[in-house]
Design a protein that fits this description.
With 271 residues, the protein is of the alpha+beta class. The protein has nine helices and eleven strands. The protein has a seven-stranded mixed beta sheet. A four-stranded antiparallel beta sheet has the order 9-10-8-11, covered by helices on one side. Helix 1 packs antiparallel against helix 2 and helix 5 crosses helix 6. It is globular, with a radius of gyration of 18 Å. The mean pLDDT is 97.
């Protein structure tokens, strides 16, 4: 089975989010919305729900009025396919390529492709940095869709999105130094200030080795070195049960993890 973690550039309008949820149907495993990022992460099972969600988002949303803190290229910003038990990265690549072709030709939205392509691999941060400047879409129109912008479609291994909030007293320079300290060795970071609250936004790209507990502790260590204080963690979406089970249960609440927020628990509930 494949998981698809669709990032949509809408995190505030409740009616719009309810409409997008309805489009996902029973394949929706989780939705995490953030008003500051103005972004929602839909965790889906299979390959059909991402198409239903993408069509609904393109019909409903426009990128021109979007003002969230998170970088984005389109209303359906990122569509990564991830192999779960019983599937492989090759299955994810096939699903990626089929979705990219579909969104380009059916919805006329330009598609940038990332992940393994032949003997090379393109990273999502590279696309964000160079799209429409040095890089042109892999499929579809050669200019952005009039309201939907463009979409990044990927195939990747498991990744966990995780944020750590710092105390409001932490200034921007210190926040940046902390994010720089933590970046690397399985962690990608982005320093953000959201409604006056500093946040280290992270992608844990090797979560079975560097999970939320390790990331939180690295942020804490850096903060201590810079005389700053950590507030709490925030899980975005779901994570594998194995990661939660290896963390001391007494830490779960502060780290914002639980057995209910695992991929396995949501798949069992969906069945």
């Amino acid at each position: 089975m494949l998981e698809c973690v669709v990032n949509v550039s809408e995190g505030r309008d409740r009616e719009a989010l309810a409409h997008l949820e309805a489009a996902c149907g029973p394949d929706l495993l989780d939705r995490h919305s953030d008003a500051h990022h103005h972004r929602s992460v839909f965790t889906l099972g299979g390959e059909e729900a991402p198409r239903r969600l993408a069509r609904a988002a393109v019909e409903l949303l426009t990128i021109h009025t979007h003002d969230g803190a998170h970088p984005r290229l389109g209303v359906v910003d990122v569509v990564p396919f991830v192999p779960l038990h019983g599937s492989t990265i090759d299955d994810a690549r096939r699903a990626r390529d089929e979705f990219a072709s579909w969104v380009a030709h059916e919805l006329h939205v330009p598609a940038f492709v990332y992940g393994p392509v032949g003997s090379e691999e393109t990273q999502l941060p590279d696309i964000r940095r160079t799209a429409w400047i040095e890089r042109r879409p892999d499929l579809g129109p050669t200019t952005p869709h009039s309201t939907a912008g463009s979409v990044c479609v990927g195939a990747r291994e498991l990744l966990v999105a995780y944020n750590v909030w710092l105390d409001r007293s932490v200034d921007r320079d210190t926040l940046k130094r902390v994010a720089d300290d933590v970046r690397g060795d399985g962690i990608r970071t982005l320093p953000l200030v959201l409604d006056g609250r500093p946040q280290v936004s992270m992608n844990l790209v090797e979560p079975l080795r560097v999970g939320p507990d390790v990331a939180f502790d690295r942020v804490t260590t850096s903060c201590e070195a810079h005389a700053a204080r950590v507030d709490c963690g925030e899980l975005v979406g779901l994570l594998p049960r194995a990661i939660v089970e290896r963390i001391d249960a007494q830490r779960w609440q502060r780290l914002d993890v639980s057995l209910d927020r695992t991929i396995e628990a949501r798949l069992e509930r969906a069945r």
